[in-house]
Amino acid sequence: SAQVIDGRACARALKESVAAEIEQLREGGVRTGLATVMVGNGYSSSAYERRLRRLASDLDVTYFPCHLPATISQDDLVSAVGGLNAAADVSGILVLRPLPAHISEAAVFQSIDPVKDIEAVHPENAGRLALGVPRYVPSTAASAFHLLDSWLDSAGEDRAAFYHRSLVLVVGRSNNVGKPAVSLAYDRQAAVESVDEWASRTGNLGRHTRRADVLIVAAGRPGLIGPEHVNDHAVVIDVGINPRPGPGGRDRMVGDVDYEAVAARVRAITPVPGGVGPVTDVWLLRNTAAAARALSARAVDGARSGGNLLLSSL
Ligand code: NAD
């Protein structure tokens, strides 16, 4: 049966390196701050916020949770983001989804300072990722490939050679997970294919997924991938997080993959919970530290060119 790719262990190791980066910034007089913007009261966004609060406190990152009413106008939300753009102690900004229907996600994303845009949702950053020159790699897709890369290292596989001969198949094409995952697979010189709901609707999902050497599933459909959808050498990364009623009336989280049945067949697999999720959270803080560094470099440059302007005007 499959090797289990341990997301919690991977997250712990990554967290240590992020802690060291944040510590080094602090020694240089740079503080790291994370702001989240939550509009209304989504169940999954408040759970995410709780996890980020804990992680920020562990890493000595200042956390600014910004809560806004579901009735807020788009203009007021854009102004609130503008306030965070201007705040010197905020390094990274994450706008939690979903936003209410009367607000255009694109308009809000465009209002984020691209240097503070740690999920790469601003068109400039999304474009850079698609061109293979990312400023920040969005955390969920980054986590999927960080787990893959780490697993390849532990399995003694040469990463470049592995990706070179592999077909990476991504199920799901959302802007925040599926499309970035496709870009990262291209960057690794793998053959890449992506499918969406259409493949399921037309009964073709298995025909595609069975060819995958690496199967990344981000559809948000529990049990979508069963043993009939995989081959025996596949490495399966399950991004899905779906609440299911569990014992005692409490929800438990399941992925998009029928874990037990698929694990019995494939080469390696990530569990849910304990797979992609924990690494995603730490990656966001990694991007926040990178933003803090970029902002301090920008401030130094700004002071320099300000000085030059002053000189040239004399
Ligand atoms: P989304 O709803 O925006 O996009 C889903 C994509 O899957 C779409 O492209 C859709 O066409 C496709 N899809 C839906 N049903 C399908 C089917 N039956 N067959 C094939 N394709 C199908 O969702 P998202 O934001 O990309 O998130 C996907 C999943 O990942 C969700 O379960 C979400 O909770 C989870 N998620 C996990 C993390 C993490 O850190 N682990 C982070 C973000 C999202």
UniProtKB/TrEMBL annotation:
The keyword RNA-binding does not apply. Residues 166-293 form the Tetrahydrofolate dehydrogenase/cyclohydrolase NAD(P)-binding domain. NADP(+) binds at residues 172-174, 241. It comes from the Bacteria. Pfam families: THF_DHG_CYH (PF00763), THF_DHG_CYH_C (PF02882). InterPro entries: Aminoacid_DH-like_N_sf, NAD(P)-bd_dom_sf, THF_DH/CycHdrlase, THF_DH/CycHdrlase_cat_dom, THF_DH/CycHdrlase_NAD-bd_dom. One of its GO terms (biological process) is purine nucleotide biosynthetic process. Its EC number is 1.5.1.5, 3.5.4.9. Keywords: Amino-acid biosynthesis, Histidine biosynthesis, Hydrolase, Methionine biosynthesis, Multifunctional enzyme, NADP, One-carbon metabolism, Oxidoreductase, Purine biosynthesis. Residues 5-119 form the Tetrahydrofolate dehydrogenase/cyclohydrolase catalytic domain. Pathway: One-carbon metabolism; tetrahydrofolate interconversion. GO terms for cellular component: cytosol. It catalyses: (6R)-5,10-methenyltetrahydrofolate + H2O = (6R)-10-formyltetrahydrofolate + H(+); (6R)-5,10-methylene-5,6,7,8-tetrahydrofolate + NADP(+) = (6R)-5,10-methenyltetrahydrofolate + NADPH. The keyword Amino-acid biosynthesis applies. PANTHER family: C-1-TETRAHYDROFOLATE SYNTHASE, CYTOPLASMIC, C-1-TETRAHYDROFOLATE SYNTHASE, CYTOPLASMIC-RELATED. Belongs to the tetrahydrofolate dehydrogenase/cyclohydrolase family. Homodimer. Catalyzes the oxidation of 5,10-methylenetetrahydrofolate to 5,10-methenyltetrahydrofolate and then the hydrolysis of 5,10-methenyltetrahydrofolate to 10-formyltetrahydrofolate. This is Bifunctional protein FolD. It comes from Nonomuraea deserti. The lineage of its organism: Bacteria, Bacillati, Actinomycetota, Actinomycetes, Streptosporangiales. The gene is folD.
